[in-house]
Amino acid sequence: MKVALAQVAPKLGDLQANLGKHRELIAQAKEQGANLLVFPELSLTGYFLEELAYHVSLRADSPELKQLAQEAGEMAIVVGFVEETPDYHYYISGAFFESGQLKHLHRKVYLPTYGMFTDLRYFAEGERVQAFDTSFGRCGLLICEDIWHNSTVSILAADRANYLISINSSPGRGVVTGMRTLGSSDAVEMLNRMYAQFFTSFVIFCNRVGYEDGINFWGGSEVIGPDGESLVKAPYFEEALVCAELDPSALRRVRINLPLLRDEKLELTLREYNRILKERFHA
Amino acid sequence: MPDKAPIPIPDEAAIGARLAINSESTERLLCGFVQNEVRKVGFERVVLGLSGGIDSALSAFLAAKALGPHNVLAVMMPYRTSSPESLADARAVVDKLGIQSKVVEITAMADAFIAQSGADTNKRKGNIMARTRMVVLYDQSEDFGGLVLGTSNKTELLLGYGTLYGDMASALNPLGDLYKTQVWALSEHMGVPEAIVNKPPTADLWVGQTDEGELGFTYRQVDEVLFQLVDERYTEAELIERGYNAEFVHKTARLIASSQFKRALPVIAKVSARTIAREFRYPRDWGR
């Protein structure tokens, strides 16, 4: 099982240029025999769009996306785009296509508005976190800020996802000493490893690079195995297409040794959450 | 200030460590920034004013590394009262980097402004010099085909210690998010000549002027306070409680607030339903 990560620097607000780049990378990844090619968050548009979001949106069934899916053929692809719905809501979405078919659409649930972020000013919030089946196994798809809420990953694990796909536009910041690279990259790398180990699952993390209005994106895309071992690590700050060979049998071995998911007490969790909901919000 | 007792710096070592930067990552990030911001708008080159001070020296080092020395034009713009050492230090940077350079004496231009406008204080004359240099830089930018590279650091931007439409004018600014003490650290890392790193910072607008003399505190002192107020979000009261001089903390906070206008575009009267920068919001990179 071969996974390719397209660590690209999308051109902000230029759908045509980005579509072209996607086609190139799809061809390259196919040539390398990838089963899955993952692009980062908003890979077709760039991230800090502000009102450009309304200029570059696509319907989930748009010919542009269909064409990418067809060009990918049997190789599965994940692309990030601004989704326009028929009732004119705009989402930060990730689409999973396989064999030309849309298998899953995830709409970013957590839209940050703190610090440098303004997502919720322009976009609607996704309302679902669901795992889905693919030809190589059950997957979950999350977008950037979603992974800063461990509930999303917990839900996907409970929903029996073996592969957590996380697509990102993570800005680099915090040039303090003591960090391997940056404050923000160190933190995300720690989260990724933690999720792989907590949920004994593959973590497929794709981040973008490049600059938008002086803000950099740090890259460092990575695939981590269910034992927490890094299977491939893309460079920081530079565009790259990297591939990792995943051994699905690792899931079996790791989970026999560490049956954390088997022992997870879903009903207890739900009971306690319901109690908390009642006490905090309906008292 | 009633007396000039030294301003105490509590936990100097601890805060010093928090202000310290990973020079390698910072250099890489800033070189990438210069490359990206210049090439994205269809340019290959930059022009900068090289004063002989550390901010413009470091900016030149970053630009030379990012774009290649032949794509960097350093313009030295002495006034008749400018210190000769400043020019010598600037030349040392040009020689070390192999960048292109040019000397444009501003005395005749600035003196004409000063005489015609009747500028009779150091502040007015200093502002005229800073804005004369801006005019020269933007003219050289047209001739050289390069963007104007700004050299203001975070300390001066936060304190408002700069001339609006003078030294604060530029197309891109790699140092604007680094405090002066971080500029020193990155300069040492990149090999800026020691004489420049070690000399007292000065705007060199009149004889004997130094930044720290004019501001009334040292950069190390004010960076500690700025960093904690701005980056770490401590309150003034918390800093005072931890032993910082109250007057100094309040003065620093006042300077940040009162110079906010220098960090913003001219204010627009709202009349329509979709006002520029209020509801009409686009990234600067739009169309690039």
Alpha carbon gap, first and last residue of chain A? 51 Å
| Rg of chain B (CA only) | 20 Å
Count the strands of chain B? Answer: 4
Helix content of chain B: 40-55%
* CATH class identity of chain A: Alpha Beta
**What general outline of chain B do the C-alpha atoms trace?**
globular
Query: In terms of per-residue confidence, which ranges of chain A show pLDDT below 50 for 5 or more consecutive residues?
Result: none
- Arithmetic mean of pLDDT of chain B: 93
Number of domains of chain A: 1
CATH class of the domain at 15-199 in chain B: Alpha Beta
Low-confidence residue ranges of chain B: 1-5
SSE topology:
The complex is a heterodimer of chains A (283) and B (288).
Chain A: E1 2-7, H1 15-31, E2 36-38, H2 63-72, E3 76-84, E4 90-98, E5 101-107, H3 119-122, E6 132-134, E7 137-143, H4 150-158, E8 163-168, H5 183-198, E9 202-207, E10 209-212, E11 215-218, E12 222-224, E13 230-233, E14 240-245, H6 249-257, H7 260-263, H8 266-281
Parallel strand pairs in A: 1-2, 2-3, 7-8, 8-9
Antiparallel strand pairs in A: 1-14, 3-4, 4-5, 6-7, 9-12, 10-11, 12-13
Helix pairs in contact in A: 1-2
Chain B: H1 12-19, H2 23-40, E1 45-49, H3 54-67, E2 72-76, H4 84-97, E3 100-103, H5 107-117, H6 122-144, E4 146-148, H7 154-159, H8 180-190, H9 194-198, H10 211-215, H11 219-231, H12 236-241, H13 246-258
Parallel strand pairs in B: 1-2, 1-4, 2-3
Helix pairs in contact in B: 1-11, 2-3, 2-8, 3-8, 5-6
